[in-house]
Prior knowledge:
Shape: globular
Strand content: 35-45%
Number of strands: 8
Helix content: 25-40%
CATH architecture: 3-Layer(aba) Sandwich
Mean pLDDT: 76
Amino acid sequence: MWIKDRLAICPLSLFGIIKAYIHGYTLKLPRETFYMKQSNKKGSKNEVGATGEQITVNYLQRKGFTVLDVNYLKKWGEIDIVARETIGNKQIIHFVEVKTVSYETKAALTYAVTHETWSPEDNVHFKKIQRMNRTIESWLLENNCDLEWQIDIAAVRIVAREKYATMNYIDNVIL
């Protein structure tokens, strides 16, 4: 079973402060602090993806993670976010795959969620995880890292026009 941690962000603003509502608590997320390589590419799909990645980076930082790498790219695959979580004296590396989908209106997003239509996390399938594993091996070797690690999925749904987003963070995915 996947462990889900819900995050609803309102308003969504990479140039201002993002308010996040997690389990009834209000958090203020900092302005954009990471350079997103994907945002340099042209096209609305890349802009949507970069926005989802930035929301996820901010979320992880607020949860106490240290973001080590963003958009780690090899010929055989890409890792969207590499982050380290420290719990006591134990450290775990999280390789996060971010899947983002945009909607025209908040009503369309709400309809998609309540009627359980297609979800962004549905695009993370066995073949994708296999490609990620090879890329993860490369990252671990290049960074001389022998810590425990896991794969997480951040499924982000955004309504850019209304500056609204929701996130479903799925911890420790095993397919």
